[in-house]
Amino acid sequence: MRQRTYLSPTLRDVPADAEIKSHQLMLRAGFIRQTASGIYSYLPLGRKTLRKVEEIIREEMNEAGGQEVLMPAIQPAELWEESGRLGDYGPELMRLKDRHGRDFVLGATHEEVITTLVRDDVQSYKKLPMNLYQIQTKYRDERRPRFGVLRSREFIMKDAYSFDTSQEGLDRSYDAMYNAYQNIFSRCQLDFRAVEADSGAIGGTDTHEFMVLSEIGEDTIAYSDQSNFAANIEIAPIQMTYIKSNEPLGELEVVDTPNVRTISEVSEFLDVNANQTIKSLLFIVDEQPVLVLVRGDHEVNEIKVKNAFNKATVELATPEQAAELLNCETGFIGPINLPKSVTVIADKAVEAIVNGICGANERDKHVKNVNPDRDFNVLRYEDLRFIQEGDPSPCGKGIIKFAMGIEVGHVFKLGTKYSEALGATYLDEKGKTQTMIMGCYGIGVSRTVAAIVEQHHDENGIVWPTSVAPFDLHLVTINVKDQDQNELGEKLYNSLKQQRFEVLYDDRPERAGVKFKDSDLIGLPIRVAVGKKASEGIVEVKVRKTGEMIEVPVADLQATLTTLFEQLSK
Fold this sequence. Notes:
Shape: globular
Distance between the termini: 27 Å
Number of helices: 14
Number of strands: 31
Domain Aminoacyl-transfer RNA synthetases class-II family profile: 33-465
CATH class of the largest domain: Alpha Beta
Catalytic activity: tRNA(Pro) + L-proline + ATP = L-prolyl-tRNA(Pro) + AMP + diphosphate
Strand content: 25-35%
EC number: 6.1.1.15
Main location: cytoplasm
Subunit structure: Homodimer.
């Protein structure tokens, strides 16, 4: 492709609203342009990179038995009503009406559509198992679009859905997709981890997120320093034994703590360690008040609280609700002398506290020498806190460390959540009606491209892995007005294309410095520069990743490029 007429506008300055490297570099290198907040156009370089990632996905999905389909972006709202998700999904779901007043949604995900499609066309066990996937634009009305295409309102996604006749069949489908994802992200040359995760609004169990390690990641990964264990901190379980001390139980004592609300303030004011305090948070669970207790040096994990109540509607009480229910300000809430309407659950660490400190349910007062079960009742003790760095790994090997990650893929075992709601059944070998068992598997294609840039760049621009680079080679004629350079550049452009290389040919009448800066910014794996030695039949070859530059006779160029690409692909 000739760069003279190619739509690849580069920018010298970093755009003011671009916070992270992938956003900055994709804008500066001419891969994307913003159309509206969270909505982007992909220019030719960006589209070619997307297609490279899509083809890797297609190859691995097809190898794993997937069949590609394409479903509509506009979906009837009645399907979401039928599944029960129309009200549950929240304001991220984009909704619209047609000219007849019928309600539709823009597809944020396609469980409803695919389930009804299979329901209507697959009736026998003989057609199962089946795995259908698509690569398509999705829509989510993000409250705060940011980080370019990493968190946008319109994005490209691969979503796949498996249909099986048994749990064992679902396990096999899940494993096949898990392995396919490992291959996909490895081929994209990403440093990633598959971590245990929460299924969120999709539903289901046994789910893993595929996280690309990055400082700008919005998710925290808890991993063992001595094993393969990794999990999102939202669901990472705590495997600890808490030892209760043998000290004598003290008498309850109410103490004045003027304007002392936080755990750190309480610890400093009363000269105690935070692990001797009890943190109390009031939640509203299906419209009923629940007080959740954790040790003062721990943090309540709302996902675990939801799971403790089978994912009921769980929300942190507002200060107004706390005042109405407990007649107390937040900061002084505690589990002693609660109204009978308030249920108490506690993290397992709280059970081992002896002579602790908690809020007195009275402004500017706390209670000393508090002991669970003696001084207040707990409905049950459960794992309700976030895991922390330094905790023992749940796998029993090593300790927990943290890393930040960008989620690029997610696999779920849905079970019968959607097939039951939407009536997706089949006839088994005995002619009996059975419900299909489903799995769901997503990859953020546009997010994957941005994640690649986050991991593959330097101070000069993007450094594309060979597997996803928009072109293999950047051929640069330094001075197109020089006859020898121009003739050799044209000759190489045609011959390299015939040798099956994808070539971006910089034939622009620009200065050498501009061309080289643009070349580094765009980041193709290898640059071939036709310069002053063109008359001698010698070109300069630069490897973008290493910065290595060598002079190569034109007669040896093909062999040299073949060797370099073999080295880069390892």
